[in-house]
Structures are given as structure tokens and as C-alpha cells.
């Protein structure tokens, strides 16, 4: 950077192929991602500001967006708590089946969402293995918003575990010893020394799980019941509007969802910038 | 005397030289139990349910369900789509990581962020954007219809949507690794007279082969299993534009549960194979796969 004169776009290098590699990258990126996404936003703009606003504030849309966001928030919170406990158990303790369970944490990344959706529905339906146990207690999971929560917890679980795990593995044990030798009990060491260090990773995992959950479709629609105003998620509403050939309205809901997702992404970047600033990495 | 009797209760058991850095036994048991129960309940049970439901009506029904013509057509389409989408994203991943890791240029961090963009877009929106461009009422709809070119509700649309959702997989494995490796190996090869392409194939590619395979495996799993994006652009024409996940949905919605779970079990098997290869690569080549823990 030192020799950069402000207008120099690329530093000289003896490696060939910059033009070809970057040219191909930018072309492919534009054709597959940037132009189509711009098309979506432009299409929603054909409604005009008032039309756009009317579409996204229509009561059914608001209900769907609110459900998607709140259920995702709740599921990500559950994942943040249990994901941290799971990461802790996997890193700190030795117990039978630990490596197997560790490997299975990535299952939600590998298992197609439609498969997860019908499997969870089969489990939590009133005649399913878990649903059958809950039915006598008067708890209905499948075909209710509770079912949406179960699906979103499933798909979001790996994010927190996999962001917390490496930080915990590299955690400096001497900090814990220092804390203990200064008279802190184990609880104080965990909650006042270790958790603050883990917090950026937990928050990053939380935000990633949240972003994934807000847009999730496949695993949710089977178990949700899909009742308008009750258990209809925002991505499903887009599909419904599309099937009614309301392209512009569908893109308006889509644009609103994109804004939420990018807001979350921005949040992740802020956490990471804060982390770098605080720990000087 | 009483001291010796009380002391063992107060001091946590020594663990490999760090007596003060672990929790008491009851707390440990509680945390392990919580983790195990949660993982079994949310991960292993759904997986087991797929296979149990698939075989509930007997092996004959199972085999019939996965060998009927529509199921076979779905398998074929899924393989075809992955066979186009994955190589496309491999070429992109190689080009992007070459540009980002080997050179310093303005806007690099922006480019890096843009590559990850598809991961934060809902699958439904990933399909929707192509409907808006190429659908009957889309920007290019009238032109395409005039020339009898079908993209939406046909193979090209399914491939495009699949490429979009699997876009970052290869690049995000390669970029950090190649940045770590620097340019010394390539500079050495070039100074010894190797051409650019020869340097790439003989020096760079062997250096990144395990990370590349890792990215390809993850990319492929998602390409074959994608539901939301493909569902929007496919049109659900049986035997024609139904991929395996869509075929599962159709069977399920027809209350043909045994067949739905039978086809689903094939996808679950694919997921298991993916996990096995992934873990194998992580254990064997951890040092050659940068960022193996991140997703």
C-alpha cells in the first residue's frame, strides 16, 4: 500500500493472469448474482414508493414478515444458548460418542431442507415419536408456529457451534488459571472471564443462524401448516404471490427481506470489526 | 483429621495438570447430558426417522418407489444439474481465488464480500430473481417467447438457480488458503521458465487440491439437495423438471409417505456420504484445508 499513488488500481506483480482471472470473476459475478438481484429491486420499484409501501405494510405481509423474523430470533436465541453448551461439551470434555456427535453437528448443512422438513413433521406430528409424547400434554408442535421454531432450530444449530468451537479450542488456559489463582471460583471464571471472550463468536453465530432462518423455506413449509396470519412465513408468501402472477408484489416482499438479511450481515461485520479492534488481531 | 475428609469434596478432581480449569463433576455431567440430548433430539432422531419411515412399508415398496420412472427421471435431472452447476462454480472459484489471493488491487474486500452474498439471500428469492428476468412476465420474457427459448420451468432455470445458491462454496474454501500460501511457489516456477498455465496446473492446483475437493463436496451436496430456489423456477412437471427434493415434496403432498421417504432416504444417504468425506478430509488434511471449521 505504501507505494500506491491513489490512482493505481493494481500493484505490479510478476504473476500472470490477473486480467483473465478478475475479468472472468467479475463477469460471472455480474451475470449470476448482481444483475439478477438488481432486476429484483428494479421490478419492485415499478410499484412506486407508495405501492411498495402498501405491499409490505399489507396486514398479511406484515404478519408473515413478523412471524419469520420473530420465530428466527427465538430459534437463533435457543441456538446461541444450546450451541454454546454443545461447543463447550465437545471441546472441554471427553465422553463416549463425542467425535461422532461432533461430526453430526454439520448434518443440517448436508441434509436437503425438504428431507429435514418431512422428517421433522413425521417426528412432531400427533402420531409421531415426539409428537405422540407431547399430544397427551396438550402440546401441538407440527402445523403450528411451534413447528416453525423446531425447523429453524434444526437448520441454525451448526452456525453457533461451529463459530464458538475454534475460539474455545484456542482459549488460553493460563487466563483461567490466573483468574482462579486470584481467588475467583469456577463460576466467576466462566461467566466473567471466559464468556466475554466467547461473546463475539456467539453473536456472530447467532446472527448467521438468524440470517439463515429468516430466509428458510424448505424445512419450514412441511411442518408449518401455512395458515395465513398464523403460520405463514414470508418466503412462502413470495411463492404464493408469484403463483398468482403478482411479480411486482412478490419482488417487493423479496426486497424487504433482502434489506433485513443485509442488515444482519452488516451486523456480523460490525461484530467482527469490533472483535479485531478489541483483541487486536 | 477432619481436614483430609473434607478436602476431596472441595477440590475439583485434577484433570491433566489443570485442576482449576474445569467444572465440578455434577456440572460436567449436566452439560454433557444437555449437549447429547439436544443433538440426539434435533439431529439424530430426524435422520433416523427418514430411514424408518422409508422402510415402514417393507423393502418391496421401498425399491419400487426409487425405481419408478418419475423417481429415476428426478435422480437423472438432479445429477445433470449438479454436473453443470458444480464445475461452473469450480471454474469461478479458481478464477476468483487466483485474482483475490495472488494480487493486490482496489476493491478487493468488496469483491470478497460480494462473493458471499448468495448465502444471505433466501432460497426463494434466489429463484425469484430469475423468474423476474426470464419468466413469461419478466424483463426478457417476450423476447425469449418470440424465439422459443424456455429458461423458466425448464433445465436452464433450474441450473441457474442452483448455481446461484451454491455460488460461494468453492471460492470461500480456496481464497483464504491461497492467501495463506502466498505467491512464492508460483514466482519460483515462473522464474524457472514455466508458463502461466503450467504454473497454475503443476504448482498451484496441487497445493490446493484437498481444499478444492472439500469445496466441491459441500457445493455438490447443496446443489443436489436445493429445494426452495429450484422449486420457484421448476414448474414441477413430473418426469421433466422435478429434481429429487421436488419429487419428495410431490409424493409427500399426495400422502404417498412411504415413497416420499424412500426418495428422501437417498438424499439422506448423500448427506451422510458428504459428512464422511468432509470429516475424513478435515482429519487427514486439516493443515491443507484453510478455514476448515468455518462455513
Helix content of chain B: over 70%
Total beta strand runs of chain B:
0
User: Largest interface, per-chain counts?
Assistant: A-B, 101 and 100 residues
Shape of chain A: globular
Largest sheet descriptor of chain B: none
The low-confidence runs of chain A, each spanning 5 or more residues with pLDDT under 50, are 1-5
- Kindly report how far apart the N and C termini of chain A lie: 19 Å
Strand content of chain B: under 5%
Helical content class of chain A: over 70%
Determine the mean pLDDT of chain B: 90
- SS elements, strand count of chain A: 0
Please give the alpha-carbon distance between the first and last residues of chain B.
Answer: 56 Å
Please tell me about this protein's structure:
The complex is a heterodimer of chains A (281) and B (295). With 281 residues, chain A is mainly alpha-helical. Chain A contains 13 helices and no strands. In chain A, helix 3 runs parallel beside helix 8 (145-169), helix 6 crosses helix 8 (145-169) and helix 8 (145-169) runs antiparallel to helix 11 (218-224). The longest helix of chain A has 34 residues, at 59-92. Chain B is an all-alpha fold and 295 residues long. Chain B contains 14 helices and no strands. Chain B has helices spanning 2-10, 25-55, 59-67, 69-102, 108-116, 123-134, 141-146, 155-166, 168-181, 184-191, 196-225, 228-234, 244-253, 257-284. In chain B, helix 6 packs across helix 8 (155-166). The chains are: A mainly alpha (281), B mainly alpha (295). Chains A and B meet through helix 1, helix 3, helix 4, helix 5 and helix 6 of A and helix 2, helix 4, helix 5, helix 6 and helix 8 of B.
Amino acid at each position: 500500500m505504501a507505494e500506491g499513488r491513489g490512482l493505481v488500481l493494481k500493484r505490479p506483480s510478476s504473476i500472470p493472469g490477473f486480467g483473465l482471472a478478475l475479468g472472468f470473476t467479475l463477469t460471472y459475478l455480474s451475470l449470476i448474482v448482481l444483475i439478477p438481484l438488481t432486476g429484483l429491486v428494479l421490478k419492485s420499484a415499478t410499484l412506486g414508493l407508495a405501492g411498495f409501501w402498501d405491499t409490505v405494510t399489507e396486514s398479511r405481509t406484515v404478519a408473515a414478515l413478523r412471524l419469520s423474523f420473530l420465530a428466527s430470533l427465538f430459534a437463533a436465541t435457543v441456538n446461541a444458548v444450546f450451541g454454546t453448551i454443545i461447543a463447550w461439551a465437545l471441546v472441554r470434555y471427553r465422553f463416549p460418542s463425542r467425535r461422532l456427535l461432533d461430526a453430526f453437528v454439520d448434518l443440517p448443512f448436508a441434509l436437503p431442507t425438504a428431507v429435514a422438513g418431512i422428517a421433522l413433521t413425521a417426528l412432531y406430528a400427533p402420531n409421531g415419536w415426539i409428537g405422540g409424547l407431547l399430544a397427551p400434554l396438550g402440546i401441538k408442535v407440527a402445523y403450528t408456529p411451534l413447528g416453525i421454531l423446531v425447523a429453524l432450530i434444526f437448520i441454525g444449530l451448526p452456525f453457533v457451534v461451529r463459530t464458538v468451537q475454534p475460539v474455545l479450542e484456542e482459549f488460553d488456559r493460563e487466563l483461567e488459571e490466573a483468574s482462579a489463582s486470584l481467588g475467583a471460583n469456577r463460576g466467576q471464571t466462566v461467566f466473567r472471564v471466559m464468556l466475554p471472550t466467547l461473546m463475539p463468536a456467539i453473536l456472530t453465530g447467532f446472527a448467521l443462524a438468524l440470517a439463515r432462518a429468516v430466509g428458510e423455506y424448505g424445512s419450514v413449509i412441511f411442518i408449518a401448516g401455512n395458515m395465513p396470519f398464523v403460520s405463514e412465513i414470508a418466503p412462502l408468501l413470495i411463492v404464493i404471490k408469484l403463483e398468482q402472477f403478482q411479480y411486482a408484489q412478490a419482488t417487493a416482499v423479496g426486497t424487504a427481506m433482502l434489506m433485513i438479511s443485509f442488515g444482519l450481515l452488516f451486523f456480523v461485520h460490525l461484530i467482527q470489526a469490533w472483535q479485531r479492534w478489541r483483541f487486536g488481531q | 483429621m477432619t481436614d483430609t475428609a473434607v478436602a476431596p469434596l472441595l477440590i475439583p478432581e485434577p484433570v491433566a495438570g489443570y485442576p482449576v480449569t474445569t467444572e465440578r463433576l455434577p456440572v460436567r455431567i449436566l452439560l454433557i447430558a444437555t449437549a447429547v440430548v439436544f443433538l440426539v433430539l434435533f439431529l439424530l432422531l430426524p435422520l433416523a426417522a427418514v430411514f424408518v419411515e422409508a422402510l415402514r412399508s417393507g423393502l418391496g415398496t421401498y425399491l419400487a418407489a426409487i425405481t419408478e420412472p418419475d423417481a429415476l427421471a428426478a435422480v437423472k435431472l438432479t445429477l445433470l444439474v449438479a454436473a453443470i452447476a458444480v464445475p461452473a462454480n469450480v471454474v469461478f472459484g479458481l478464477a476468483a481465488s487466483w485474482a483475490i489471493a495472488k494480487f493486490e488491487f482496489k476493491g478487493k474486500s468488496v469483491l470478497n464480500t460480494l462473493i458471499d452474498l448468495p448465502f444471505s439471500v433466501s432460497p426463494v428469492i434466489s429463484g425469484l430473481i430469475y423468474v423476474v428476468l426470464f419468466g413469461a412476465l419478466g424483463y426478457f420474457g417476450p423476447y425469449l417467447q418470440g424465439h422459443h427459448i424456455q429458461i423458466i420451468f425448464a433445465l436452464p432455470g433450474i441450473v441457474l438457480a442452483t448455481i446461484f445458491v451454491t455460488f460461494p462454496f468453492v471460492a470461500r474454501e480456496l481464497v483464504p488458503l491461497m492467501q495463506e500460501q502466498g505467491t512464492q511457489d508460483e514466482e519460483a516456477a515462473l522464474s524457472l521458465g514455466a508458463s502461466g498455465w503450467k504454473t497454475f496446473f503443476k504448482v498451484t492446483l496441487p497445493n490446493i487440491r484437498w481444499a478444492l475437493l472439500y469445496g466441491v463436496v459441500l457445493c455438490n451436496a447443496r446443489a443436489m439437495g436445493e429445494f426452495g430456489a429450484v422449486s420457484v423456477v421448476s414448474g414441477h412437471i413430473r418426469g421433466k423438471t422435478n429434481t429429487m427434493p421436488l419429487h419428495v415434496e410431490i409424493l409427500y403432498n399426495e400422502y404417498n409417505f412411504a415413497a416420499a421417504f424412500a426418495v428422501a432416504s437417498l438424499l439422506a444417504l448423500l448427506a451422510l456420504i458428504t459428512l464422511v468425506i468432509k470429516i475424513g478430509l478435515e482429519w487427514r488434511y486439516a493443515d491443507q484445508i484453510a478455514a476448515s471449521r468455518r462455513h
